[in-house]
Amino acid sequence: MTGGRALSSRGQSGDADGALRANTYRLLAALLAAPPDQGLLRTLEGVEQGEQEEDAPLALAWRTLALAAHSTTVDAVDDEYHALFIGVTRGEVMPYASWYLTGFVMERPLAELRQDLKQLGYARSADVKEPEDHAAALCETMGLLILDADVGAGREKKFFDDHVGPWMIRFFQDLQEAENAEFYSAVGMLGEKFLRVDQQYLAMTPN
After folding, report:
1. Considering only Cβ atoms within 10 Å of each terminal Cβ, which end of the chain, N or C, has fewer?
2. pTM of the entire structure?
3. How far apart are CA 178 and CA 33, in angstroms?
4. How do residues 144-203 score in pLDDT, each as one tens digit?
5. What is the pLDDT of the chain when averaged over all its residues?
6. Which residues of the chain have pLDDT under 50?
7. In whole angstroms, what is the distance from residue 4 CA to residue 83 CA?
8. What are the boundaries of each domain within the chain?
9. Maximum CA extent, the chain
């Protein structure tokens, strides 16, 4: 996805929380769009948790991901990614909103999403082959919305409620339980815990 508007370098409220939320969405987008390379794995090994309590579910998820990054290799995580999301005919987990909401791909949720993206001034990059309701694309879009100074907090919340909240936590739960998931089980754990926290945060956001 690409944003049609100029993006600020900070979040809606101009504080570090917005940047942290956006960066987490962008990380999830990168991990779901393609298997991580060596540089990203090493970065994940040393990720810092900020001021979260050590026993908080989200902090535990970050530590689990760091350990998983340390324990895998580029080749192993590449094989895992292809088994989970691509497969011979299809992967073990289907990362599409339409699939989770209707049981089929390229259905009404995708059409509604495309209309909302058009209204926001966002368009799919020409070199991206996956539909816009792919989990990676939606995480990337959330990151853009958080950083976009022209998008109000209420619009960000509505986008989450319409296109992310109804299905993506279930997707991340399925990813944790997938037979072929090792590193990506930790990605699923982070995604689930982060989305639960962000859902609570957005629930307190004025419309």
Report:
1. C
2. 0.90
3. 18
4. 999 987 887 889 999 999 999 999 999 999 999 999 999 999 999 999 999 999 999 999
5. 89
6. 2-14
7. 34
8. 11-203
9. 46
Dihedral class, residue 103 (left if φ above 0, else alpha if ψ from -120 to 50, else beta): left
**Cα gap 40→56, rounded to integer Å:** 24
Phi, psi of 123 (to 5 degrees): -140, 150
User: In 3-state terms, what secondary structure has residue 123?
Assistant: strand
Q: Residue 81: CB partners within 8 Å, gap ≥ 6?
A: 34, 35, 184
Could you tell me the two tokens for 183?
Answer: 């590193």
Structure tokens at 158: 């509505």
Measured CA to CA, the distance from residue 158 to residue 192 in angstroms comes to: 19
Nearest to 40 by CA among 3, 80, 69, 4: 69
pLDDT at 10: 35
In whole angstroms, give the CA distance from residue 159 to residue 186.
26
- CATH number corresponding to 11-203: 1.10.3480.10
Q: The tokens 């307190």 sit on which residue?
A: 204
Q: What local confidence, expressed as pLDDT, does residue 12 receive?
A: 42
Which structure tokens are listed for 107? 């259905």
Polymer length of the chain: 207
